[in-house]
Amino acid sequence: MRTEDVLAAIATGLWRWDNASGTVTLDGEAARLLGLPAEPVVLPEVSVRSRFHPVDWNEINGIVNLAVAEGTLAEARLRIMDVDGRVLRTVRSRSKPLESRSADGRVDYELIGTIQEIAEPQPGTTAAHTPITGDWRRSREAFLLDAGRALAEARSTAEVLRVAASLSMPGFSPDGLAVFGVAGDRLSIIGHHGHDAGDEEPFTDMLLETDYPAAEVVRTGRAIYLATPEDYKRRFPATWPLVQRFDRVSWAFLPLTVAGRTMGAWMAAFKHPASFSPDERSVLTTVARMLAQALQRAGVAESERELTTGLQRSMMPQLGPEIPGMQIAARYVPTGGGLQVGGDWYDMIPLPSGRFALVIGDVQGHDVRAAGLMGQLRIAVRAYASEGHRPDAVLSRASRFLAGLCASPESDPYEAAGGGGMGGGSAAEVDADFQSPRFATCLYVECDPKTGLLEVARAGHPDPVIRMTDGTVLMRPTAGGLPLGIVPDTDYPTTRFTLEPGETMMLCTDGLIETGGHDLDTGWARLRAVLESDTHGPAGAHEPEGPAAGRFEPPHLERLADLLVQAVHGPSSHHTTGPLADRREDDIAVVLLCREGEGDGCACGTPPAHPARPARRTVLTVAQDEPERIAGARRQIRELLHDWADADQVDSAVLMVSEIVTNVLLHTDGDALLVAEAVGELGARRLRVEVADGSDELPHKRHPGEMSSSGRGVLLMEMLADTWGVDPQGEGKSIWFELHEQSKTGPDQTS
Description:
Layout (H helix, E strand, L loop, with lengths): L2 H7 L2 E7 L4 E4 L1 H6 L7 E4 H5 L4 H17 L3 E8 L5 E15 L5 E11 L17 H19 L3 H10 L9 E8 L2 E8 L12 E2 L5 H8 L3 E3 L2 H7 L4 H5 L5 E9 L2 E10 L7 H38 L10 E8 L10 E7 L5 E8 L4 H19 L4 H15 L7 H4 L10 H4 L1 H4 L4 E8 L5 E7 L5 E3 L5 E3 L4 E2 L12 E5 L5 E5 L1 H5 L5 H14 L3 H4 L16 H13 L18 E10 L3 E2 L13 E7 L6 H12 L6 H21 L4 E8 L6 E8 L19 H8 L2 E6 L4 E8 L11
Helix pairs in contact: 5-10, 11-12, 17-19, 20-21, 21-22
């Protein structure tokens, strides 16, 4: 009896689908099952395709592609339609994809297989029937969407493995999972689920030549399905004794492939029999691909985090040993994205004189080059400072160093030799950014811990901020020069002032001020509110118990640093994806220096409950060639008197300061030294302002005409000041005035 007769007797036909020629060869039984005359025929592909239900045709495409990738049989259920669109019958197709090459070398495939009619269950019977479309398929699609979303959000290898262990596949959930990785010529387990601790020992260091399914999957890049223990024992007898004790009955081993490279294998083991139908294999293959991509992303992210951490640790040094009488705190927050390393830095440098220097700076840009320049510049500044140079000399040398470092070569030898860069561009075009000039701002402060004397040199950087013992916050104007690297030979004048006991100085980069859409004014107002609010209330201080009851202790300097960063980025709960994500527009570096007060350490917080209020004091020098700093003097007075009871008196003080300092610059050849001090309790304070100069000529009262533009200084002090006078000094004189605060509180209120 012929084979064709046997197949026809069991309603099974043969077909051959040639994808290259676009033709389908059918025997008589196959033609009959497709609703055609029962005789052998060769038909165009489109004629046969029209006989299949459209939904089933879309599905069989995916099944065939899966079989081609895995080198397995393609199995599918298909509904046969007549010319009127009615379903004639349901058939099962089993075929083998075979690779073929055309004359021009193009790779294609042809399918050789069988078609067999499936008997549909009759109404009222218990025969199982799984529709081609239905709840299972919808569950599969929903599962794959959820799995893809969960794996895409995993940020580390551990998270990816946890997500893989929690996947619940519709209809055939495995109860044992393992992920294998490859290191050289060895296979190891990087994660598993559904096994006891120690079960992975025999598989943790296995040669790729071992007769084990995961090793073969890595070697060949093809999936292995073992539906029964007999299949496992027959194909892998050497490792079957290691697996037998787990009491599993079905296994699927799938390659973890990314960009054509097999990076490992994934095992799904079942305690119940699994037939591994095309739909089930499709789900497993899709999960394996998503798992491979998630593991690769997690590996890259972990490498970037490790690199970032290493760069930050090497470029952001730890603050040095404790300094008697001083407290120091610092924070560095990189901008979002990339390696999260930018151009901001800070440093504390011990000096040969026994003093120490605080440095804070910002190299232009937030990229890798900015980080590299920052590291080089930080080392250069540290070297110059360690040699014992003064602050102005340190910045001058650093400016020349950065200008030479960023100088663009006149010609590129690689380009002159005819070399090309990536993407066809020249090397000069590819490296244009690395040859472009960069500048940096910097603030260098040399501090004497015994006296609190600060010597400040500034290169285009924001001024330091001083928080006084009573919580008043002032931005301390300092002389400065151009940013580093713009003009190699730049002078950087030095400003001297004293950090009084209990005062705190803040140095920061512009990222702390301007992030979040703020400019210098609004950003400074935001920071000032934080600095001042931290000095009152339970958030900034606490009342101790026991013998110290009734005395408030200051907050820790580290907490103040955290509050300043949170004022820009929000609390840590905002550091998540979604609408509450913080906006990191610029790097942030901040350094806090507090000189300890009398008694119990740093008084950089709330003063005791009822002692005499400490004096507020500010000192400012206005040079002959810097008349623009008169505006800074006016601002200093307003900030010093920000809570003065009478606003008219504040205006009077500002007017008199402006008049006296201007007269010094106009009528003398020296600089003006401004000293302002407010003492006393709130509502009853006394303001004393002194302006000293080097001239011995005393001011005298004039009688200016109506249109005169000068000569009213003495008249103003007589009208506005409570008292005023002139004190001759050894060289020069000091003009002073005093104002007594007029409290506007009611008779029942106390200050």
